[in-house]
Amino acid sequence: MHGRRTRVAARCRAGVAAALLAAGQAAAQAPPAVTPTGTGMPPAAAVTLGAHTLLAQSEGFGTDPAVTAPIATRPGGSALIVFNGGYAGNAAPPVDSYANRWTRLGRVTYGNGYDGFDVKAYVALRARGGPGHTVSFAKRANAAGEISVPFVEVRNAGRLQDVAQNYPAAGLVLTSGSVTTTGPATLVALWWGDGAVTRMTATPNNGFTVIDRFLMLPDNSGVQCAVAFRQVDAAGTYNVSWIGAPIQGAILWLLAFQS
Questions:
Q1: Which residues of 18-101 form beta strands (DSSP E)?
Q2: Tally of CB atoms within 10 A around 226
Q3: How far apart are CA 146 and CA 134, in angstroms?
């Protein structure tokens, strides 16, 4: 707010002068507001990774509904991501304990002979949250079937700036699509392997850190998955490559959130 100069006439009444003096003393004692230079708004809080968890149910031991472990999310201002990897028939939308509205981002069917399996992604922007936050999926087609459900909070995220999804063929190094940001962002990457194996590794590059994984599967099978994130401080175009062993294909997602 621009300052205004007030000139007081020398012969003003004593009561007016006293009132102006008192107001000036109060203003001097009040702490100054801190705002970015040239604006009248407080600085936006930085977008950052929040709480997260990964539910994994193995084949034959699943439950209906599949419910994630509770996490403590922010009361407001966060974006939420949840994925459903498993039987395509278990296609009910997510329901969370704070009644948020979820938007579906896409559906990718597994190859490599896994007929009837897919990965579905959902996001909730400007989400409500709090303690004991869970997400559940009804499993109408196969209650006992295998399923993996990553649930991730991105704090102070006003928008999903960009998203990339691809499904590279089997190889030692699998590279995601690219996302472009216009400023600082939180990037969330997911790897969904398609190999008929139960013990594996999946390691991202480009400054990404794994936060949740299900890579040591039981003998009765499960849906392998890894989740990683990276904070970036500037506008740019980013991707991530995953090095996996043994070699397999994988469905890859990369999401960029900004404040």
A1: 48-57, 66-67, 78-87, 95-96
A2: 25
A3: 19
Residue 13 lies in a domain: no
**Residue-averaged pLDDT of the chain:** 87
Run of H or E residues at 23: helix 14-29
pLDDT, residue 106, reads 85
Question: From start to end of the chain, where are the E strands?
Answer: 48-57, 66-67, 78-87, 95-96, 103-109, 117-127, 135-137, 147-155, 159-166, 171-175, 179-181, 185-193, 201-204, 209-214, 225-232, 236-238, 241-248, 250-258
The torsion angles phi and psi of 109, rounded to 5 degrees, stand at -85, 135
Q: Against a cut of 0.90, is the pTM above it?
A: no
Give tens-digit pLDDT for 219-250.
Answer: 999 999 999 999 999 999 999 999 999 999 99
- Is there a domain that residue 252 lies in? yes
Residue 250 · residue 202 · CB < 8 Å:
yes
The neighbour count for residue 146, using CB atoms within 10 Å, is: 24
Distances (CA, A) of 123 to 61, 65, 70, 87, 151: 27, 19, 18, 20, 10
Residue-wise pLDDT tens digits, 169-178: 999 999 999 9
Is residue 40 assigned to a domain?
no
Question: How many residues are recorded in the chain?
Answer: 259
User: Please, which residues bridge with residue 187 across strands?
Assistant: 230, 256
- Is residue 3, in this structure, part of any structural domain at all? no
The residue whose two tokens read 């969370």 is 96
